[in-house]
Write a structure and sequence with these properties.
105 residues, mainly alpha, 3 helices, flat
């Protein structure tokens, strides 16, 4: 569709209507305060839950009861163990990310 406006001045009408921009500092401060409060609440809940779990897992005596290996203590041997085919895994992950990235660009 052809118009009489120049390409370089196509946004001029919108910018003139905006005029003076009033920044609503009160709403910004309330939003920041709300984010900080909610983050503190979530952090406190996570701290309590994780502390309870850690205390429970540390209270189990593995030396006398090896069958009581529960929770996170089961993962202690697998955390730093490399996968069986690490070269193939890294190649597939890298290729997959490139395919996904090129698809959404």
């Amino acid at each position: 569709m052809e118009t009489e406006k120049e390409w370089s001045s196509r946004w001029d009408g919108y910018w003139e209507d905006i005029g003076d921009i009033n920044i609503h500092w009160f709403s910004i401060s309330i939003s920041i305060t709300l984010i900080v409060v909610l983050t503190c609440i979530v952090a406190r809940i996570l701290k309590r839950v994780l502390q309870r779990d850690i205390d429970m897992y540390n209270s189990v005596d593995i030396e006398n009861n090896p069958e009581m290996d529960i929770g996170w203590k089961r993962l202690k041997a697998d955390v730093f163990r490399p996968p069986n085919h690490s070269l193939a895994l890294t190649s597939l992950i890298g290729t997959g990310f490139q395919v996904i990235q090129s698809k959404y660009q």
